[in-house]
Structure formats: C-alpha cells, structure tokens
Amino acid sequence: MNGFLSTTLDSDMVGLYAGDEQIAEGYRRAKFQLQISKKIRQPYAYVGNCSAKKNELEVLFSIGTIWRIESVKYDEDPCTIELTSCDELDSQLMELLKKYTGDGCTL
Fold first, then answer.
1. Nearest Cα to 9, choosing from 53, 39, 41, 67?
2. pLDDT tens per residue across span 64-85
3. Dist. CA 30–CA 18, nearest whole Å
4. Strands 4-8, 44-46: parallel, antiparallel or unpaired by DSSP?
5. What percent of the chain has pLDDT over 70?
6. How do 58-62 and 79-86 pair as beta strands?
7. What are the backbone angles phi and psi of residue 85, rounded to the nearest 5°?
8. Is the CA virtual torsion 36, 39, 44, 49 positive or negative?
9. How far apart are CA 16 and CA 14, in angstroms?
10. Nearest 5 degrees, angle CA 80-CA 74-CA 82?
11. Cβ neighbourhood burial of 32 (10 Å; 0-12, 13-18, 19+)
12. Contact between 32 and 83 (Cβ < 8 Å)
C-alpha cells in the first residue's frame, strides 16, 4: 500500500470501484462517506487537477489519518459506512487506547 488513501468527491464513481462481480460469501461491498473535521492535522489534498483520471475529483489522505465510525447502513448495496476524521489527541480515542493497551500510549 502506498502512503495515501485515494478518495473521490464524486459519489457516482462508487459503482466503478465497488464493481458488480460476484463477491465471496460473508463479504459485502462498502462505500465510505467521509466527513472532514476542520481540526484535522494529517495532510490531505485535492488532486483532481493533476490526477490521471481528470473526472475522478480525487482527494488523497495521509495513511495516518484517524477515522471515527459514525454509522453503518447495512440495508444498502454497497453498505454505507460514515466516517469522521478525528485528531490523534481525541479524548475518546485516548480512552480506547488506555482500555485496550493498558497504558496511555499515543499513536
């Protein structure tokens, strides 16, 4: 995997990337709807003007970006997973790290 998560501003592109071929039993297609916090510290950039696919409206996010799952809608195909970017110093994130790692380590 490279150092960026490639996304698009064009929701019509979902079908292109989700595909329509048969998927293995127990798996589902998913689309992610991303909400970007104004407090985000990780780098991201709109690169639609210089992307290989000009109509893709591509946005790149640093792989280190942390996302909070807000909701999952299973009644759609593909299912929709709504994510919100969060700061690595987010208090809820720090509590989860303490709970699952046994200390206060940071990311």
1. 53
2. 888 989 999 999 888 999 999 9
3. 7
4. unpaired
5. 91
6. unpaired
7. -65, 145
8. positive
9. 5
10. 30
11. middle
12. yes
